[in-house]
Structure formats: C-alpha cells, structure tokens
Amino acid sequence: MSDQDAIGEAVARTVRALRAGHGWSLDELAGRAGVSKGVLVGLEQGRGNPNLGTLIRISDALGVPLTRLVQVEEEPAIRVFSPERHVVLWRGESGGTGTLLAGSDPRPSLELWDWELAPGETRESDAHVPGTKEIVYVQEGTLTLVVDGRTDAVPQGTAAVFVGDRPHSYGNTSDRTVRFVLAVLDL
C-alpha cells in the first residue's frame, strides 16, 4: 500500500468515526465544513483526493487538528493497564485513596478511577473543563456527593451521573469506609 493510500484510509476512518461521534449526518458535516456531500462520501469511502483546504475545513468543523485526520497509525483497539501502571493520585488524611486505573487521550478523554474514602474524609474537586461528565458507582457504603452546592447521598449499589464542570466533592460522612468507581469524560 502506498503512503497516499494509507493516508486516504486514515482520513476515511477518522472522519467517519468523528462524524459518528458527533451524531452528525453527512449533510450536517458538509454544511458545517462548507464542502459538498459528494466530497464527504468519497472521503469516507477512501476515494478521491481532497485538497489541503478541504481537509482543514473538515478538521475545523469536527473540532480536531488537521494532524488528527491524517494520522496513519491509529490507537490500538485494546490498551491494557496492568496493576503496575495504576497510580494513586490522592491520599486522604485518614488513609483513603484515589487511584487512576486507566485513561485515554487526547480529548475527548476518559478516565477510570478506584476510590476509597475513610470515615470523615472528603475529596474536593475544582470544576473541570466545560462539558465534562462524571459517573460514579458506589460499591460499599454511602457516598455523599456535592455538585455545585447540591448534596445527594448515593448508597451502595447505586450509580449517579453528574456534571463535572462545576465545583464538586466526594465525601464519607459515615463511620465505615466508602468504596466507589468513577469515570470522567472530559470533552
């Protein structure tokens, strides 16, 4: 396969995936990028030879750098994060921990965390970038979740989805350890 063919396949794969990720039709992306639907169809099928201006308009419409569209090497289908790669990034004063288990990059990024809060511990978090969402699943105990001044008790076996682009905290107001898994989607 020639370099030009490899780049064409990379552009086709990336544009299809990003367009689908936005939930856009071919017509919608064409309108946003100022290109014809026919150009996009050819591009997504690995046909055609778009000029640099067309690729720049499409990358701008998709909100990604041009280099993202033409990267021949794609992220592997599976990345394994063995226990040696897990990193404790927060330690509470009573022994609680916040451990980053895995993460993806670049944006949108997804992080998976394992948290343990000792009785009385609270982890305060500043607001993340606009559009950030978080999902928490409580494995043991009852988590006290505060988001933008609103407090909710999240009991064992329960999940909660919340906006992470506002000040928030995870707390344990009980006399037993709270364990929970947290996923952060940073758009």
**Could you tell me the number of beta strands?**
10
CATH superfamily of the largest domain: Jelly Rolls
Shape: elongated
For the biggest sheet, the summary is:
6 strands, antiparallel
Give a brief outline of the structure:
The protein is an alpha+beta fold.
Which helices and strands appear, and what pairs or packs with what?
Blueprint lengths: L2 H20 L3 H8 L3 H8 L7 H11 L3 H5 L16 E5 L5 E7 L5 E9 L4 E4 L7 E8 L1 E6 L2 E6 L3 E5 L4 E4 L6 E9 L1
Antiparallel strand pairs: 1-2, 2-3, 3-10, 4-9, 5-8, 5-10, 6-7, 6-9
Structure description:
The protein is 28% helix and 34% strand. It folds into two domains: 3-70, 434 Repressor (Amino-terminal Domain) (Orthogonal Bundle), CATH 1.10.260; 83-186, Jelly Rolls, CATH 2.60.120.10. The chain is built from five helices and ten strands; from the N terminus they run H-H-H-H-H-E-E-E-E-E-E-E-E-E-E. The longest helix is centred in the first third of the chain and has 20 residues, at 3-22.
Label this structure with key terms:
187 residues, alpha+beta, Jelly Rolls, 2 domains, 6-stranded antiparallel sheet, 4-stranded antiparallel sheet, 5 helices, 34% strand
